[in-house]
Amino acid sequence: MTGDRPDVPPRGDRPGAPPRDGPGLPPAEQAAAFVNEVEGHLLAHAERERARREAEALCARLPWLTGAQAEDVTRHYTEQRLDLTRELLRATIARAAELRGEYEARYTGLRRSLLKRHAACAATVLACAAAVSTVPTALTR
């Protein structure tokens, strides 16, 4: 869906998009990027076909349309449906980025809290060990 409109930059040029295949990527990441790219094209093609089928079903319910009118309605419906799909995908991507940021912030806070608790526990254990080691010394005097 990205290569068919001039206002939509190619996948690797969009902000937040995964990098394009390149010599700097390990082979496994290149393969994963290729698979993701192919999957995107297949999903876009399936969505385009679904929109076209819906448009044709709509035109079939309007028997008074001429052939040219039906083609025009099909074209407009398909374009609008694909635009709507793009907007929904963009909104989903934006929300996913927001959630990722929220979860990362929460995870960082939890990690920091856990580290503080472990440090406090370790300090308590050290203090107890120091106290226990001084008790026999104090008792022998």
Q: Which features would summarize this protein structure in a list?
A:
single chain; 141 residues; mainly alpha; 2 helices; rod-shaped
Summarize the structure.
With about 140 residues, this protein is mainly α.
* Average of pLDDT: 87
Shape: rod-shaped
**What would you call the structural class?**
mainly alpha
- Radius of gyration (Å): 30 Å
Multimerization status: single chain
Count every beta strand, where a strand is a DSSP E run of 2 or more residues: 0
Helical content class: over 70%
Low-confidence stretches: none
Give, in order, the helices and strands. HH
Query: What is the domain total for the residues?
Result: 1
Distance between the termini: 85 Å
User: Strand count, sense and closure of the main sheet?
Assistant: none
How many H/I helices?
A: 2
Strand % is under 5%
Describe the protein.
- This protein has one domain.
- Helices cover 77% and strands 0% of the residues.
- It is an all-alpha fold and 141 residues long.
- It is rod-shaped and about 110 Å long.
- The relative contact order is 0.06.
- It starts with 26 loop residues before the first helix and ends with a helix.
- The chain is built from 2 helices and no strands.
Helix and strand topology:
Elements (H helix, E strand, L loop, with lengths): L26 H34 L6 H74 L1
Helix pairs in contact: 1-2
